[in-house]
Amino acid sequence: MPSYELIPFDDPAALAEAVAEAWLTTLASNERENRPYLVALSGGRIAGNFFAAIARKAKQHKQSLAYVHFFWADERGVPPDDAESNFKLASVSLFQPLGISADHIHRIRGELAPNEAALNAATELASLTFGFAHGQPVLDLVFLGMGEDGHIASLFPDLTEKKIKSKDAYVAVVAGKPPPQRISLTYAAISAAKEVWVLASGPGKVEALQLSLGLNGQTPLARLLGMRRQTRIFSDIKLAP
Questions:
Q1: pLDDT of residue 79
Q2: Domain spans, the chain
Q3: In the structure, what pLDDT confidence band is assigned to residue 2 with cuts at 50, 70 and 90?
């Protein structure tokens, strides 16, 4: 049975604030390990508020993120200055306010052909990781959202079996919602991470979350939960008792 911790919140604002505080606390402990910390970010409705909360709290605590290297769980096939770019959202809300060094920002190059972008992203991640698990580069933490259909990163319910089982770190996928061209971490790469934190937030997602947490769930999130020993889910979605 999948093992997860479900942490409820009353609203998206409380969720964003609490997860930002929890991550900064985790980072403060990691500083003693004396090595870079690799994290993968996601987009989504709550991401902007979450990134802004991190930036604000890091400034309040006078906490440096200089040893953190930023990757992405997924990216849209658009240039970095496009309004749909996950990179742009993080850049405006997190990197610019904190003055994060450009050489610690490892964006997926959505302006390239998707297969080329996926290969480049996988190569860059492999060059910086401090360990591999089952052939996968190990990220310290992957942040994920969850869509109305239970998708995570850009791993949608209609993903082909070949890409579901891919042993590459990143794959090019075609989404059923715009923009269609995407690049995503694979199930194998996400499941290899030391920690995965899911920010499940927003309306219209009750059924997806219930199906994901139930026995024999078939959503992308359910699939991931079944591959990991532990996953933390922070949610403002009100489930039926």
A1: 98
A2: 4-235
A3: low
